[in-house]
Amino acid sequence: MDPTKLGIGLVAGAVVVSASVVGIALAIRNGDSASSPCADKAQSVPCFNAAGQWVGAGGSVSTPPTTYRYSAPPTTSTYSPPPIRKDDFTVELKVTSKQCFGTAGCNVVVEPMLNYKYGADRMTSYGTCDVTYSISGDESGEVIGTAYGDGGTRFRVSNSILSTNSSRVQPKATVTDVTCR
């Protein structure tokens, strides 16, 4: 055998052995926790790497698993009632006194009684409201009155005195306006 060929073979063998030793050293070093593929070097796989990719237990890299977040509904109610309207109220008239004068008509005293279509809780959510109403049946025309809110569902009303053309006239009332403050 040619000695130059033998020298080349020994050199080539030494290079292969050196590369193997370096490869083994690198493999051992890569298995060390100091060079963990995880973004947080204190973690071990499975974890997220520095690029935000998921590193599985076998070292395979993939997109991160889907994470669902649950947001609890707010604990305070944000309900606000619809705007108050005059149609939400009705007015009934209670006749508290009536004095008739034959064919000349009658003097009638009426007490307005308000009715609200919805519950007291809804009424109080508007604050204090004043309800204006119109009473028909008086010989001189409509009589306008206002029930003033005392807060909540209480109102201050004044009796109205009407003069009618005859004893057959039945006074009626309708709500014309509602204002709240």
What does this structure look like?
Helix content is 18%, strand content 33%. The chain has helices at residues 3-30, 120-124, and strands spanning 47-48, 54-55, 61-62, 89-100, 106-116, 129-136, 143-149, 155-156, 160-164, 172-180. A hairpin with a 6-residue loop joins strand 6 (129-136) and strand 7 (143-149). The chain is rod-shaped. The strands form three sheets. It has a four-stranded antiparallel sheet, with no helix packed on it. Strands 1-2-3 form a three-stranded antiparallel sheet, with no helix packed on it. A three-stranded antiparallel sheet has the order 4-5-9, with no helix packed on it. It is built from two helices and ten strands, in the order αβββββαβββββ. Among the domains are: 35-64, no CATH class; 86-180. The protein has 181 residues and is an alpha+beta fold. The chain crosses the membrane at residues 6-28.
Overall number of strands: 10
Q: Strand order within the widest sheet? A: 8-7-6-10
Shape: rod-shaped
Radius of gyration: 47 Å
Order of helices and strands: HEEEEEHEEEEE
The termini sit apart by 115 Å
Unreliable stretches (pLDDT < 50, length at least 5) are 19-33
Which structural class should the secondary elements be placed in? alpha+beta
Q: What's the helix count?
A: 2
Mean pLDDT: 79
Query: What fraction of the residues are assigned to beta strands by DSSP?
Result: 25-35%
Largest sheet: 4 strands, antiparallel
**Helicity, as a percent range:** 10-25%
